[in-house]
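User: I've been going back and forth on whether these two constructs are worth ordering. Before I decide, could you fold them both?

Assistant: Sure. I'll take them in the order you sent them. The first construct and its structure tokens:
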Amino acid sequence: MANSKFEIRNSKSFRSVGCTIEDQDERDCRVTTRDLNIDAYQIMAEIQVNLRRIVHRGLEKVAGKTWYLDACPPGLFERLVERKENEAAIDRFNVEYQELISFASLEELAEIIEFNKDLAKLLTAIAPTSTSTVDRLREIEVLRLKLAAAVSFDDSDIDNLLVYHQEFRDVLARGMNKSSEATPTPVPAPAEEKAAATAVVPDGDFGTQVTETDEPPVEDMAPEPENGTAVAEVDTSASSDQMSGAEEVLAAERAIASEDNVEVLRILHREVMSIAEAVYQRDLERTHPVWEMLTADGWYDLKKADMALSPLELFFAVAEEARNRQRSGADLDELKAYLEEAKFTKLLLSLREMFMQNEL
């Protein structure tokens, strides 16, 4: 492991808890179980951060930037959002957006790979020779959980972790020069990505560290229960009720003219919040003039791919269908059933993630 950024003391005598060895300065030092766990934690963090990056890049290749809509096993997206909100609540002063994948365990990465056949094919470049990527992730997850519970590592645990660490370094090195099998890519890749190798590997070597930070303060768009159904919170201090639809459209047109995409989304965010509340209140006749203007103007089509805006299209399609069903005589129970079938709560969460990605 001479090339590893982190080296756990390799000799058996060195690993023995409480043993005495001589360092380069011929001073006595004691290596404890705590020392070994600290070293193991550093290696585990390196493995986990880099594997998240690899899976994330693969997901964006096969499912686009809004991979969390369709490329997650049932319930996983919601779990990641909940975990992110819980952890981000510790520090609300950080201004960097944190990707959802940063909150996935190795077991959850394995579930994502199993759920996506195209992703599994794409990641064959990093599969160890002795087993599948999914199985290896689950083996490492056992060690991660042991570390998380502050359970002391023994020699066998250390040996396995070192093997896994070197194993992934080796397959990544091979993957840099190996073309993976062709896979369908729904979202066209930028020119610079098409010229790159098809194997999904992180930038730099496997020792590259990534600093993970919490999400920035944002307007809350998380659903809360109402009679057993989730409903989006509304920022009453800046709701679209305080401005007419014509005024909001005019403000959006000015923002487009000044190329202020964040302001365009801020205006659209108010309309989305208002309509989301209206849907749950069965006030389905409310119009959405800003969205209509952005689609007619071509702004949405122009920005859809780069800003990962596809959840907006799904949201307004569901809202429009709910309105059509109400006009056709659907009762409250039927409308509620439709919203559940359309996974409207998950759609609201994906919209919240989309707005945060765009610095809102």
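The second construct, handled the same way:
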Amino acid sequence: MNASGTNQPPDGTFLTNDASRRTFLKGVGLAGAAGLAGAAGLTGPFPASTRASAATVPVILGANAPGPWSPSQPQGTKPWPQAVPGALGCRSYRDTPFSTGADCPTAFPGEQFSKPVASIRPDPAVLLNPNDSRYPALVQAIKDLIKDGAKKAVSGYFAAPPQLTVWHEAGHLYKASSDYAQYGLQPLDDGNGFPTNGAAAQRARSMHVKMKSLCDAVTGPGTSLPHVDYGCIIYGDMNKMANDNDLQGPTNWVPEAKYPMDWYGIDIYRTSDGPGTDCTHDDLTSYDKVNQVMGAFHAMVMNRSPLSSPHINVCECNADIDTYRSQFFTDLAAWLHNNDGRRMLTFWHDDPAPHGGPWSSAGAGTIQTLNNIVSLYP
């Protein structure tokens, strides 16, 4: 029995292919950054490429749901699709943890006609323990949920096969004082913001490996359904959340290279409290600064993925002051376009939110910038 209290090995036994480790970084494109800045009415400087073999890709822009998607909101207050036509990315959550198959969501989360990235929270004590009497029904219910997402893509309900993750921001959100501590994912820390609970990190990695195996078993090659891609989402710097020098320890919440994910996600905000509070509050006032934070994330992904052009998602992003948003969104979209970024999902919240704010706080310049992103990186 391992440190998680289950008979699961540290990162599961569900995948066997070893991935090549990579230590190089990919290039940042000058043209993409400068082009978007010009379209948004912004000026440089935008640095020339500092890394080799940049892979330029379309960027799926979107927002969280139900939030701005909610039909209960007055017409005109919703950003998608009224204010930003063509922004089809959708970030959906089912935040209630569940330990039984009966409590698992039956409908794959995501708004109609969107391209969803969804989060769910299965109980790791059941998901990772085949000896638990609840395990068979829980796993079958999750498989049914994955199948529902794939079928919705086939039917046209979703605009593309959805993506799935569990327990987003593990290693950051689930502190010992939170309602989720009972699920064994609390990171704890050493007083300097560094996680110390290695069992929690291992549990998170094992869940990701297990969930990817379920997506692979239900959809994709050998089935009649499009693949539901599985990935993980972190929040924080690589030394705390995905440390390549601590692959089995408390500062690694991302499966290592022999268990590659289909995509890798990070939540990143520009906030007025500035550097020093945590990684994603670093100085993000320029393309160069965004490149420093996202470049570290990209380097980690290249060490974990077997793909020369891996799939990177920004699953939450915003700024707490509207005058920051155009520059930040511009720089982040340009970086993603030039560095394997597939999704840029903005986050809006009506409650007092230190990292973002309600959609009603988005000014005309921000809305124009979002439309420019859709136009420039289709």
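Notes on the second construct follow. The mean pLDDT is 83. Strands lie at 60-64, 89-93, 115-120, 163-166, 229-234, 263-270, 312-319, 341-346.
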